[in-house]
Amino acid sequence: MASLTAVVGLLQERDARQSARWAPLIHRHSVLVAQMERMRTRNAQLEHMLRNAGSGSPAGTPSGGMGGGGASSGSATGGLNGSSSAGDAMAVAQLQAKANELNAELNDRYKELLNTQQALRAAEEGLAGKESELEAAKARICELEAQLERMAREKETSDVTSMALGDELRLLQMELIRVEEANSKLKEENEELVSRWLQKAAEDAEKLNEANMFYQSMVSQRESLELQAAAVSNVTGTVDMSGSGESLLDAMAGASSSSGAYSGSGFVVVPTRARRTVAAHGGEGHSVGYAPNSDMLATGGSDKAIKLFDARSGEHQFSLRGYSAAVYCTRFSPTGEFVLGASADESIRVFDVATQRPRHTLTGHTAKIYAADFSTDGSLAVSGSHDRTLKVWDLARGYCSRTIMCYSSCNDVSVSIDSGVVASGHHNGTVAFWDTRSGDVSHMIKGAASKQVTCVEYSPDGDSLLINSRDNCLTLFDTRTHQVAMTYEAQGFSTGLNYARATFSPDGAFVAAGSASGEVYVWNAASGALTTVLEGGHTAAVACVAWRPSGRSLASLSRDGGLVVWE
């Protein structure tokens, strides 16, 4: 309402200014009209006088005299009339001139009156326009008042909402403070637990070192006793060579090799030459693995099949088919009863080796699958895919029991000895450790490699994790501290494929990996020193290497499908 009063006041002030501007013009017009009326009256009087003057002598003038004096009287009258006519003519001329002057002035007044009337009409039209503007302004004022009332109501509503949001914000701030306090408390408890866990791990490691030292001393004593017994038997001539020649030769070779170590099930021998070369696949080769309890090898490649070979003779035994795309990973179950193959057709097939029939076809991924692995008891399988998920499969019923969302495409997985943790290597260079029971990430090593990780594999004792990457080096991480324990590099070594697999020897003393140029490199796991380079077996990038469980040979598969057994 205050704004309306102000607008009305402004309009009244403007009307007063404009009225004051036109007031002299209106007054002048009124004066001119009055003057014209006076001039019209004066003109009528003059015209009347002029008509009287033109009609002769004035009324009542005598026209004759008395008898006896007629001649003299007529002469006198004639003289008077002549003089009067001359005077009237002059008066008429003056009156005519005066009338002409008055007519000219009257014409000027008419013109001025006409101009004044025109100006007055223009003023009236301007005033009508101003009145229209005033009406429009009043309508606009009404509209603005309605808008002002609406905005006032909206402001009132906004104020109420603002108060409610303010109350909610204060509650959230209080909740945040409470959560931060709880988080701080949990962090302190977690740090305490980690400290206690590290202390316990250090104590366990110390005990394990003591046990290893004791075990090594006992092994040394056993070897000494065996040598003494062998010497005594040799002297008495009772050495029995039947049925044990190959094992004895292997043991002697391992004992005489400076790079050998006893694994508990045989001597690990670092190979030196290619014993057999087989064209395993017509297309690309991707994966190779040994059966745990036999000399059977399983390979996978771009020809959409798993192929099984006799590792000693190199003979092809049979093929397992059913895939519609390349097989990127092959793994035997812990008992050797089953073999799985992970494929680019987004499926995993588990085959019974004895019957050569599929036991399970596991589907659910939405992109190619580079990796899969069995749990140590064979009841579960874990797979990693480029759809950025890991899946845990129940092999008793053949279905997915858990899906784990990752942060990047997965290139490889490896299950821990107790099957409670699965390690995964990713396209973004990250290595993650996942709890298979809850699906939560227990630890993540960001920047484990600057380029994508191609392989992850637990050591035989489970204390270390070996990774291969496109950084052209291998890295060993301590699974207890998640710190780098060793890096393996060599001149000429480079990782040629995004799924290139490295491996441990059965006793964990050596690590082996294939290079893009076709060689196989072997390092000492403890010292990081390069032990040997196996050359001449491949002409293409090596995709995968696998150590025989007995430790006496190594198999490698190259991208061109060539399989080589090294001894």
UniProtKB/TrEMBL annotation:
Biased composition (Gly residues): 62-81
Disordered: region residues: 52-86
Domain of life: Eukaryota
Coiled coil, from the record: 92-218
Residue stretches making up the Autophagy-related protein domain: 11-209
InterPro entries noted in UniProt: ATG16 (IPR045160), Autophagy-rel_prot_16_dom (IPR013923), WD40/YVTN_repeat-like_dom_sf (IPR015943), WD40_repeat_CS (IPR019775), WD40_repeat_dom_sf (IPR036322), WD40_rpt (IPR001680)
Keyword terms, alphabetized: Coiled coil, Repeat, WD repeat
Ranges for the WD repeats: 278-319, 320-361, 362-403, 504-533, 535-567
Pfam families according to UniProt: ATG16, WD40
Feature: compositional bias, Low complexity: 52-61
An example Gene Ontology biological process: autophagosome assembly
PANTHER family, alphabetized: AUTOPHAGY PROTEIN 16-LIKE, AUTOPHAGY-RELATED 16, ISOFORM F
Listed name of the protein: Autophagy protein
Species for this entry: Thecamonas trahens ATCC 50062
